[in-house]
Amino acid sequence: MQVNVTVDGTAHSNEAEPRQLLVQHLRETLGLTGVNVGCDTSNCGACTVHLDGRSVKSCTVLAVQADGHEVTTIHGLATDETTEDGWHPLQTAFHEEHGLQCGYCTPGMIMAAADLLAENPDPSEEEIRDGLEGNLCRCTGYVNIVRAVQAAAAAGNGDGSSVSAHQAEEVSA
Amino acid sequence: MIPASFDYVRAGSAEEAVAALVEHGDEAKVLAGGHSLIPMMRLRLAVPEVLVDITEAGLAGITDAGDHLVIGAATTHHDVATDKVIETHCGVLAHVAATIGDPQVRHRGTIGGGLAHGDSAGDLPAVLLALEGTMVVQGPGGRRTVPASEFFVDYLETAVAADELLVEVHVPKLDDSWGWDYQKFTRVAQAWATVGALALVSSNGTISDARVGLTHMGSVPIRASATEAALAGQSTDAIADAAARAADDTDPPSDLNADADFRRHLATVLSRRALEAAVG
Ligand SMILES: Cc1cc2nc3c(=O)[nH]c(=O)nc-3n(C[C@H](O)[C@H](O)[C@H](O)COP(=O)(O)OP(=O)(O)OC[C@H]3O[C@@H](n4cnc5c(N)ncnc54)[C@H](O)[C@@H]3O)c2cc1C
Ligand code: FES
Ligand code: FES
Known about the structure:
CATH superfamily of the largest domain in chain A: [2Fe-2S]-binding domain
Mean pLDDT of chain B: 97
Number of strands of chain A: 5
CATH class of the largest domain in chain A: Mainly Alpha
Radius of gyration of chain B: 19 Å
Largest interface: A-B, 32 and 30 residues
Distance between the termini of chain B: 48 Å
Strand content of chain A: 5-15%
Number of domains of chain A: 2
Helix content of chain B: 25-40%
Order of helices and strands of chain A: EEHEEEHHHHH
CATH architecture of the largest domain in chain B: 2-Layer Sandwich
Low-confidence stretches of chain A: 157-173
Strand content of chain B: 25-35%
Structural class of chain B: alpha+beta
Strand order of the largest sheet of chain A: 2-1-5-3-4
CATH topology of the largest domain in chain B: Uridine Diphospho-n-acetylenolpyruvylglucosamine Reductase, domain 3
Shape of chain B: globular
CATH topology of the largest domain in chain A: DNA polymerase, domain 1
Largest sheet of chain B: 5 strands, antiparallel
Oligomer: heterodimer
Strand order of the largest sheet of chain B: 4-5-10-6-7
Helix content of chain A: 25-40%
Number of domains of chain B: 3
Order of helices and strands of chain B: EHEHEEEHHHHHHEEHEEEEEEEHHH
Structural class of chain A: alpha+beta
Mean pLDDT of chain A: 90
CATH architecture of the largest domain in chain A: Orthogonal Bundle
Number of helices of chain B: 12
Radius of gyration of chain A: 15 Å
Bound molecules: flavin-adenine dinucleotide, FE2/S2 (inorganic) cluster
Largest sheet of chain A: 5 strands, mixed
């Protein structure tokens, strides 16, 4: 079947078998290997992307279901509106707060965190932990991940506005 | 792992979906949020030949219908959890939806899928039983309604036939006399309920109606009828003794998370906590 999907702002049209998972489409058809696969059971969240602006596990969505929709991956999160240095505030914050060790969970963590901050620009620690419940990290113990999300929230002018501006654009686009 | 091959049909309406189900018979399965079905297909525990996708069949949305709310089957858990009308008139349902899985799961998974899947470990069946909600099912012959008490037939089996679609979920509006709470015991964050207890109580010091729905206490979701009977017409002081009977006549499963005896114990403790919170 033909899948027409806009990924990170670029329209793509490719053939996909109905059983192809969105994560395979992103990685294998489009070469976006920043979208990771960490499990077979829809638990780990390493494959998290935004579908029409909301975080989803791309291993649990069929590529054909994304036909006609918009996807944002870690490759396209930093846009002109959200960054001055080529990095999204969450990417900067994960770097500065040491929110990763091996880095395998990081793309999914950042995409889940971006959705969390879009909905709640100033989350408490508990709200951050709840919001990242669908993302597993086997290295950090989560403490620095929570700190990084707090730092990114603070960097968004204290109200996360830089992050939510991007999200608003994504939803309306 | 990826699923075995299948054909994909994207239905543009409930009628189109039913027509596809009639055409393909037992080989076809409805695809809603896919968050139970796709994991099962990846593990090859389900091998449907045709998937009928209803996510764009116009079945999502929440309507105020006077004394009850009408929730489209394809409404996501996230939308149920955050909708203002549900929050105002049936807060218990929003509260339970917010405990399902994690944010990503709630962005895709649907209320209809969570009920039609027929898994007694799911959180929605207990609340629909306690609310005495109604399911609207559409088939080739039109629509019919099924009360929640008749909807869950066996493990992963509901009253929805192979050529039918769950299209709407109806829940009553609750007035201020009702209090509620859901106690969900999980082994780790994001896990399914080992056991859950949903209490919905109408009282003004004296309990006029107490309903307790239990999650994961048998092959189908059930109500703790002995507990409910022991509370009707009583003062709230009766809760501890009544909750001790929450596991009466239940036949809970044993698995890696808990054996049946532990589940029975949890049912009594969680029912007591939920009832106390509901009247508190
Ligand atoms: C990591 C993870 C954690 C989870 N945690 C929880 C949890 O804590 N609590 C919980 O309750 N659930 C949990 N779930 C399951 C989740 O709630 C699912 O969304 C839900 O069980 C199924 O809904 P769905 O829309 O995804 O349905 P699908 O997966 O698309 O379908 C499930 C079944 O129902 C049938 N079906 C779906 N919609 C209809 C319809 N309208 N009419 C007829 N048949 C239909 C399908 O044919 C299929 O057999 C979890 C899932 C995952 C992946
Ligand atoms: S790879 Fe998608 S949840 Fe693990
Ligand atoms: S940094 Fe290694 S899994 Fe999270």
